[in-house]
Write a structure and sequence with these properties.
This protein has a domain of 93 residues: ATP synthase, E subunit, C-terminal (hypothetical protein PF0899 fold), CATH 3.30.2320.30. The protein is built from 5 helices and 4 strands; from the N terminus they run ααβααβββα. Helix 1 packs across helix 5. It is rod-shaped, with a radius of gyration of 48 Å. The chain is of the alpha+beta class and 203 residues long.
Amino acid sequence: MSEATKFTQDILTNAKAKADSIILEAEAETQRASDEAKIAIQREADAIARAGRSDAEAIKRREISEARHRSKLRQQREKDRIMQEVLDETKKRTFEIVRDDSRYIPLLTRLVESGINELGTELALIHLNGTDLKRVAILERNMTSSASGRVKVEWSKEPIDALGGVIVSSRDGRIRIVNTLDQKFNAVEPKLLIEARKSLFGE
């Protein structure tokens, strides 16, 4: 083998060794890069999965909260409906009294006398609704002298907008005693609501 041939072979051998080394290092580097990439991808996938689970839990909690809120709203609407029915029925029964003269005339007389006494003026102007204006003669007969004897009483011919009861006022209207059934019911309505809610719903 000539020197040239041997030299060439040595170069090729060394080159082959270097090439093999480079290839091995490249393959090792590729494997490391691949392993690191797999780890990074897995970490990212885990993070996404955790975020997904977190998002899913958040959505679930939000949906549960919204469902509870809707349920509470439905319950509140149902309670309000029941309370309105209670008020309507109570009001209906309260105002049924105006159709029973044996109960209503004495009550109306007391409301007129109470208004006159509370007004405390020398003249009292009595305001009634259209139906009760027809009962003036009966009321005058029933009123006690303590209320009508010391106070001049005038009966307004203009009917008031009320289901029953009376408004007693001074002649100029600056002082008014409202003794209507409507006002009486409105006055007790808040207490009635409290008692009804306590009785019905334990609130």
